[in-house]
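Following up on my earlier thread - several people asked me to post the actual chain instead of describing it. Fair enough. Here it is, all 108 residues.
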Amino acid sequence: MEQHNAHGHESHESHGSMKSYVIGFLLSIVLTIIPLVLVMNDMLSKKATTAIILVMAVLQFAVQLIFFMHLREEQKPRYNLMALIFGLVILLTIVAGSIWIMTYNAIG
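Reply from S.P.:
Thanks for posting it. Predicted structure:
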């Protein structure tokens, strides 16, 4: 009965070190504080603030994938990356299509 642990979690490689989690956490905090400070202090124009918020969101997404979801540490990361890209294409298609429909139906 004790042999079921041989193929369990212990047989896989490490899921991350404390150092990588701390780096990811600090990057997440910084990438959250930057847009917050820009918006609260009204430092830039609306377009520039929106662009920076979008860039910080993309960077935050990358930090989450790399440091917390361990995307690069898989044995076959290409499959996970392909599935992620496919999901993002579907998501962007749905969002862009919804915005397009709402925009052109609002005119008439």
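The chain is about 70% helix and 0% strand. That should answer part of your original question.
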